[in-house]
Write a structure and sequence with these properties.
By secondary structure, this protein is an alpha+beta fold. Helices cover 39% and strands 28% of the residues. The protein has a 3-stranded antiparallel sheet with strand order 5-1-6.
Length: 99
Amino acid sequence: MIKSGQILPKHVVTQSEGNIVSDMGNEKVMLNIKNGKYYNLGEIGGDIWESISKPTQVNGLVEHIVKKYDVQTDKCEEEVISFLENLYRENLIKLVVEE
């Protein structure tokens, strides 16, 4: 298992099961059935969430966000990893290290 705070660009991420996600305007909101918590993923967070419906390497996810939202790669990587680490701490995603 990967420790929180150690998500790397080479890691593969995917959604954990047990979440109900809905669109509210341009944003995604989610209810985790296991912990009963509600999350507002926002617009870009919702895009990330949709992108990890299947196992996805963090590098590829960053490339997708950079192209779609015209942001700098370094800043995007930092923000995406921070977002993923928050999801991981809440047990909303699973991580696997590619060897």
